[in-house]
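Sequence only, no structure available. Ideas?
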Amino acid sequence: MTTTTELEAAAFRRLLQHLNQDRLDVQNIDLMIQAGFCRNCLADWYREAAEAAGQPMDKEQAREVIYGMPFAEWKARHQKAATPEQLAAFEATQKRHGG
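Reply:
I predicted one. Tokens follow.
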């Protein structure tokens, strides 16, 4: 019998595959504008969960779990500079949602 935790873990792994393999065209700023979270947020949540479970983890370790490689490497390979339009949309979203 598959547990809820196993199903949640499988869905989480699929989300990471989608973000880091299938949709590399979607930048973190786009995710922040549209969904209010990004890959870095997932890493922060992962780190918080690890620490709550008694497993100390730093930001870079968590990001490597989420990105599947060191963040600096992922950033150099896949992250593009934000456009003025993206920055304006991000700022508007932050104001609207109190960020």
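Helices lie at 4-22, 28-35, 39-52, 59-67, 71-78, 84-96.
Hope that gets you unstuck.
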